[in-house]
């Protein structure tokens, strides 16, 4: 474990305890950090910065340990949920295309099984991406014929000043140094390029109502942004916000039912289960931020 003396967003040194830890690094496996994990409510000790209100895991597991977990993720349920995810990504691409109607090269950070990249390609973008899990990269190759590089975004060699769009959907909350990832995103964007970033909002009504039971409290999340701390992080990386939206996730009814213990009975029967998989539900919790940002050239 590694302890930070300063806030990773603003460098402030006035940190206070936000929530106490209830997990230990040694006990963690790739199962606990996969995208569809059910480890809600399990958290590292969280601290809050008085300067920018950013909440982050402190102390936290080392970068190498986190990378080793993500490299070994196998998550077939993610691919089963492709339909719901497609609806989410369709909304994102539509909004990106309003800001960048001429499309062009797009870089997807944390590309998972390539669902977003595949859709972007069908809409005329030229997608590239990076993803740490070899299982996910192989799935993207087999299913969509996509070539995704295996590895971690911050240290990958990627052409600078090249991309019309960079997408980071549910990525930044998973990494130990969000600032470095935003600087990298700025570097690879061309001057009129747009970054689309989606991340849970710790200041949202849902987060405040759910308290410690908020579904985004999970071991995979090391950083919990609010609109204010995200704006600070983007500005420090030389990016400015163009547009902000609240994000409504679409899942299949099956996915949601399997996550509420009492309702699991409804999906035990395999025929019913396949029915629920085909029922999309848009979950309008609005507890994620969807932010579009451009290079700050002033
Ligand atoms: Zn701060």
Description:
- It is a single chain.
- With 298 residues, the chain is α/β, with parallel strands linked by helices.
- The chain has a single domain, classed as Vaccinia Virus protein VP39 (Rossmann fold).
- Strand 5, helix 6 and strand 6 form a beta-alpha-beta unit.
- Helix 4 packs across helix 5.
- The relative contact order is 0.15.
- Bound molecules: zinc ion (ZN).
- The site of zinc ion has 8 residues, from loops.
Write the layout of secondary structure elements.
Elements: E1 15-19, H1 30-33, E2 46-49, E3 55-57, H2 63-71, H3 76-80, H4 82-99, E4 105-109, H5 115-122, E5 126-131, H6 134-144, E6 149-150, E7 163-169, H7 178-188, E8 189-200, H8 205-210, E9 223-224, H9 227-236, E10 239-252, H10 253-257, H11 270-277, E11 280-295
Parallel strand pairs: 4-5, 4-7, 5-6, 7-8
Antiparallel strand pairs: 1-2, 2-3, 3-9, 8-11, 10-11
Helix pairs in contact: 4-5
Bound molecules: zinc ion.
